[in-house]
From TrEMBL:
Keyword Transferase on entry: no
Entries under InterPro entries matching the protein: ZMYND10, Znf_MYND
Presence of the UniProt keyword Oxidoreductase in the record: no
Lineage of producing organism: Eukaryota, Metazoa, Chordata, Craniata, Vertebrata
Domain (MYND-type): residue spans on this chain: 315-351
Protein's UniProt name: Zinc finger MYND domain-containing protein 10 isoform X2
Record-linked PROSITE patterns: ZF_MYND_1, ZF_MYND_2
Chain's gene name: Zmynd10
């Protein structure tokens, strides 16, 4: 909500000319950290089941991100020339925020897929939100049609994977990408689950949209995701079935608590919040900025991150638990001096190159 309501106001303020945009970048980046965490934990079904009604807010969040993906496809990507033009720090920050928004939206797609894996245990309000309020199956069809994670550059097909655009070799172009796979699995969960089928109203519009999927269900795709044969059968049956008019039953809909509360508490205050944060949060003195940078450096120190890691480091030579690190490159661990000496013949050249690279930086 801050990115949607406050950040645009901040960018428009005439007196907002920060000497350093790093504090505001960290706030914008915070959403990316959280969605990465959510993607990791929602892989486990028990997390989704324990989230209760908070899943409503998360479903709405994922829906907003998927809408942004579809809108991005219609607007197109900025050209390399536009991205390389000289710009102010705030303009550069806005460009970084837009790029980050794309990656966050792709993560939201994965989170939504993990939620639909638990469709049989979701509340009626959540199912109704996904199928009736947002009509997610039709939105997912739009995503498959446009595939915003694919593009053509210089006549070559590129796919967005592992945080960057990668050129796809001609021999690999029929391979199902991870993101396409997430969309297909989500559609499978929403359309073939008995709980969802009982509540999804198949109107003539919905039927027309879903039948577009038949063109994508090739033998090559079915070889890679055999479960989609059931979806193909469902669509063949749908093509012959009669459609139903929209239901006019009385529905008591549960409202997402978190978003609704924030909207209600801050309505009409967004301009004031932006001005307050301009003065007290995003215009730090040099001394405050140094203290803040020191806190960030301490937070992301290697030894701090390793202390909270679930597994202790292992010796690169004998694989036993290690407590000593190579003093030159700081990246390889050993349990004792003897193992380091024995491993040096293999590690030495790499270690020297890594140390030289660090000095060059």
């Amino acid at each position: 909500m801050w990115k949607q309501r406050v950040f645009p106001v901040l960018c428009r303020l005439e007196d907002f000319k920060p000497h350093n945009t790093f504090p505001i970048y960290m706030v914008v980046h915070h959403e990316a950290s959280i969605i990465n965490l959510l993607e990791t934990v929602f892989f486990h079904k028990e997390v989704c089941e324990s989230a209760d009604d908070k899943v409503l807010d998360l479903v709405d969040y994922c829906h907003r991100k998927l809408i942004m993906l579809v809108a991005r496809t219609s607007c197109g990507d900025p050209s390399e020339e536009e991205q390389s033009q000289d710009s102010t720090p705030m303009q550069e920050l806005q460009k970084q925020a837009e790029m980050m928004e794309f990656e966050i939206s792709l993560k939201a797609l994965s989170v939504l897929r993990y939620i639909t894996d638990c469709v049989d245990s979701l509340s009626l309000s959540t199912l109704n939100r996904m199928l009736s309020t947002h009509n997610l199956p039709c939105l997912l069809v739009e995503l498959l049609e446009h595939s915003p994670w694919c593009r053509r550059e210089g006549g070559k097909l590129q796919q967005f994977e592992n945080g960057r655009w990668q050129t796809v070799a001609p021999s690999e172009q029929q391979r199902l990408s991870k993101l396409d796979g997430q969309v297909w699995i989500t559609l499978y969960n929403l359309l073939l689950s008995p709980e969802a089928q009982a509540r999804y109203c198949l109107t003539s519009f919905v039927k027309g949209q879903l039948l577009k999927l038949q063109a994508f269900l090739t033998d090559t795709l079915l070889d890679q995701l055999p479960n989609l044969a059931d979806l193909k059968g469902f669509l063949a049956h749908l093509a012959l079935a009669e459609t139903h008019p929209p239901k006019k039953d009385l529905v008591l809909e549960q409202i997402p608590e978190i978003w609704d509360r924030l909207e209600r508490e801050n309505k009409g205050k967004w301009q004031a919040i932006a001005k307050h944060q301009l003065q007290h949060v995003f215009s730090p003195s040099e001394q405050d900025l140094r203290r803040q940078a020191q806190r960030w450096a301490e937070t992301y120190r290697l030894d701090v991150l390793e202390a909270i890691a679930p597994e202790r480091p292992r010796c690169a030579y004998c694989n036993s638990e290690a407590s000593k690190r190579c003093s030159r490159c700081q990246s390889v661990w050993y349990c004792c001096r003897d193992c380091q000496v024995k491993h040096w013949e293999k590690h030495g050249q790499t270690c020297v190159l890594a140390a030289q690279g660090d000095r060059a930086k």
